[in-house]
Write a structure and sequence with these properties.
Blueprint (H helix, E strand, L loop, with lengths): L15 E7 L5 E8 L5 E5 L2 E2 L6 E10 L8 E9 L24 E2 L7 E6 L2 E6 L2 E7 L14 E3 L89 E8 L3 E8 L6 E7 L15 E2 L78 E7 L9 E4 L5 E3 L8 E5 L5 E3 L8 E15 L7 E6 L2 E4 L10 E3 L7 E8 L3
Parallel strand pairs: 16-20
Antiparallel strand pairs: 1-6, 2-5, 3-4, 3-6, 7-8, 8-9, 9-10, 10-11, 12-13, 13-14, 14-15, 16-21, 17-18, 17-19, 19-21, 21-25, 22-23, 22-24, 24-25
Length: about 500
């Protein structure tokens, strides 16, 4: 049809129809699309149009015929034409173009359909040439340019300007051409360079002359800093000792944090720290709850201080936590009387642990804290300390159930002074006292010095005339009760 102005977008009016089979009894049918009322559809049974409300009702996807209006039997004899969604809104606007894209712009040349103007978004206008976007103009509220693909004006090719250009914001050059002297690089200026705003350099900056910074020299955009002079002076104008001095870096693990090495003015000691969430200025806030001392890995560390150690808090090197050493450790090259001392409570602390034992200890032992010599055996169950065991059972030892047993082996120990066969493995292992004093389950009466034999059920009793091979040991104390636990000396006949 004829039109004035912009060509409207053509909309086609269409309807859809659904058919059902009547059977003379079915009243309800399911529609293929939802409607709001009976008037949204045209219903015919055979050639007879049905009247909404009078003959049927419709809501959602349900078509319901009235009780006396069931469609007669037939194949596809019930037709439903949907009219409520067939006509969409048609917008014919004389002042608007369709959005388009770089390949099919909204305004284009008849001979070059991929060259023209289109709108990438509601806030930008773009110019395409041969299907390639060359210029994009955006709303100024989109902010300053932070890359070649951002900013109010973006040009995909080069820009040639014969007159003076003014840039109110920053000028960032991202060309990959490196500068090897003052006449090469992405930006070459034959005269002086006066900049009232910020400057950002993405590569290395080489200064043939001197560098004087009138303000603060805060950060660098390089990953490394090479200085040819042998010393770097920090706080060079610090005439007293009121500030900390050192090096600080920053990182972000969800919180902006600071790490570094500094000399504390409070005591003159150097500290390596991390995790601090309070940016250091003249002092490092070591009292902040986020302050942590950092780990330090060294190839070799030589501590030359001559301070002697008399406790775990003194000496040339003091460590608040544990010390893990992967290699051999040698101490006492000065032949001190105490080579390795216990800085804690006397009698507390072990060398090695269960399952992490040493092989051979070349030491002289002058005393032992505990009282018996024991050996580990395989047993058929776990037994309480003080239980009398004999050789037998499914493995090596078992509970002694015979009175005055000649197979008696010993008494289950509590804390042996010396333990043999410690590496034995099995479901049930017992530590059996063979020599020395140990608690033992007994049945009375017993007098101190009595010889003890098995009494059954893992107990011992006194015996004045024991048979050979039945004596467990001798009682160290009197016992008049029915059953209990007393100290005995095993291995003494």
């Amino acid at each position: 049809m004829a039109y004035i102005g912009l060509r409207p977008v053509t909309q086609v009016l269409s309807t859809s129809t659904q058919r059902f089979n009547g059977d003379g009894t079915t009243l309800e049918f399911t529609l293929q699309q939802s409607v709001s009322k009976g008037a949204d559809i045209i219903v015919a049974v055979g050639n007879a149009l049905q009247v909404p409300t009078t003959d049927y009702t419709a809501s959602g996807t349900s078509l319901i015929f009235n009780a006396d209006k069931a469609p007669t039997a037939g194949t596809n004899n019930v037709s439903v034409t949907f009219i409520s969604s067939s006509l969409q809104t048609v917008y014919v606007t004389a002042n608007a173009y369709p959005t388009g894209n770089s390949v099919s712009p909204a305004i284009y040349s008849v001979s070059s359909p991929a060259t023209g103007i289109y709108w990438p978004s509601t806030t930008s206008l773009a110019f395409s040439a041969s299907g390639n976007t060359r210029v994009v103009v955006s709303d100024v509220n989109q902010g300053n340019a932070t890359s070649t693909s951002t900013g109010a004006l973006r040009v995909a090719g080069g820009i040639g300007a014969t007159g003076t250009s003014y840039i109110g914001g920053q000028l960032n050059l991202v060309s990959g051409i490196n500068a090897t002297n003052e006449t090469s690089g992405a930006l070459v200026v034959s005269g002086g360079l006066g900049v009232s705003g910020d400057q950002y350099l993405g590569g290395t900056m080489t200064i043939a002359g001197g560098l004087t910074v009138a303000g603060a020299f805060n950060t660098t955009a390089t990953t490394s800093l090479t200085v040819n002079t042998p010393f770097i002076f920090l706080a060079n104008t610090n005439v007293g000792d009121a500030i900390d001095q050192g090096f600080v870096g920053t990182y972000n693990d969800g919180t902006q944090r600071y790490t570094g090495l500094y000399r504390a003015q409070s005591d003159g000691r150097y500290r390596l720290f991390t995790n601090l969430d309070n940016q250091p200025t003249t002092l490092v806030d070591s009292g902040n709850v986020s302050f942590r001392y950092a780990d330090l890995w060294l190839a070799n560390a030589n501590v030359t201080s001559g301070i002697s150690s008399t406790s775990s808090l003194t000496g040339a090197l003091t460590v608040n936590g544990g010390v893990g050493i992967r290699g051999t450790m040698y101490v006492n090259s000065q032949n001190a009387a105490v080579a390795i001392g216990n800085g804690g409570t006397s009698g507390v602390g072990n060398i090695g642990a269960s399952g992490a034992t040493f092989n051979t200890a070349f030491i002289k032992s002058t005393s032992a804290q505990y009282a018996d010599v024991a050996e580990k055996y395989l047993a058929d169950a776990d037994y309480q300390a003080g239980t009398v065991l004999c050789f037998g059972g499914d493995h090596e030892v078992t509970e002694c159930t015979v009175d005055m047993c000649k197979k008696v082996a010993g008494v289950v120990s509590t804390q042996p002074a010396y333990l043999m066969n410690d590496a034995i493995k099995g479901d049930h292992t017992v530590t059996l006292a063979l020599l020395g004093r140990v608690p033992c389950k007994v049945r009375g009466p017993i007098a101190k010095g009595d010889m003890l034999v098995s009494a059954g059920e893992g107990y011992a009793r006194a015996e004045q005339l024991p048979q050979i091979g039945t004596v467990i040991g001798k009682a160290l104390e009197d016992f008049a009760g029915d059953h209990g636990v007393i100290e005995v000396v095993v291995g003494r006949v």
